[in-house]
Amino acid sequence: MPSRGPWLAANPGGLRLFAGIDDWPAGQRNLARYVILHPAARALIDDWEDALHSYVAWLRGPAAIEPDAPDLTVLIDELREHSREFAELWDRYGVVGSTQGRRLFHHPDVGDLTLGFQGMTLNGTNGQFLVAFYAEPGTPDHDAMVLLDRVAQERFGKPSASASPA
After folding, report:
1. Which of 80, 79, 120 is nearest to 98 (CA)?
2. Sheet strand arrangement including 111-121
3. How many angstroms separate the Cα of 96 from the Cα of each of 1, 34, 68, 118?
4. Residue 106 burial (CB count, 10 A)
5. Torsional class of 101: left (φ above 0), alpha (ψ -120 to 50), beta (otherwise)
6. Rg, C-alpha atoms of the chain
7. What are the angstrom distances between the C-alpha of 39 and each of 33, 68, 73?
8. Gap between the Cα atoms of 165 and 26, Å rounded
9. In terms of pTM, does the model score above 0.90?
10. DSSP state string for 25-61
11. DSSP 8-state symbol, 164
12. What is the full DSSP assignment across 43-107?
């Protein structure tokens, strides 16, 4: 489901894009938790408040369909407990969000980069959701993502970085 389940996998640059998420246990990694609770997220994401609004709205969909789902209930309770901003927005019942657009990041390893993103539900996967961040080839943003791949490969010592055990 969108942002409620664990982050299943990422390429090296994708994992490294979200600075500090690799320090969390694999089972706790997901974009909503990262954006709302990780101390690095506010500095990393240029319009953090917009991202916060998007993730609150994004979680509203599955909450409407499965309000008693244990994994969703645990995540929402955690976010409400640790983020006053999330709790206030959650109590407003807003559902307007975006699964595509552009985000400006202020990354500690590569500086500023603007990436497009597209989120989509994967048919036949029981609600798994894929979020792809991308940069146009030949741009400084693309070069920054290539550099993030290299930084991640050096850090993890392997050509791909899985976010959770197989």
Report:
1. 120
2. 100-107, 111-121, 129-134
3. 17, 20, 22, 16
4. 14
5. left
6. 16
7. 11, 29, 23
8. 7
9. no
10. -GGG--HHHHHHH-TTHHHHBTTHHHHHHHHHHHHHH
11. S
12. HHBTTHHHHHHHHHHHHHHHHHH-TT-HHHHHHHHHHHHH-HHHHHHHHHT-----SEEEEEEEE
Q: What is the length of the chain?
A: 166
Please report, as a single letter, which amino acid is at residue 145.
M
Quick: pLDDT tens for 66-108: 888 888 899 999 999 999 999 999 988 765 556 778 999 999 9
- Work out the burial of residue 153: count CB atoms within 10 Å of its CB; fewer than 13 is exposed, 13-18 middle, 19 or more buried: middle
The strand pair at 111-121 and 100-107 is best described as: antiparallel
Burial class of residue 142, CB neighbours in 10 A (0-12, 13-18, 19+): middle
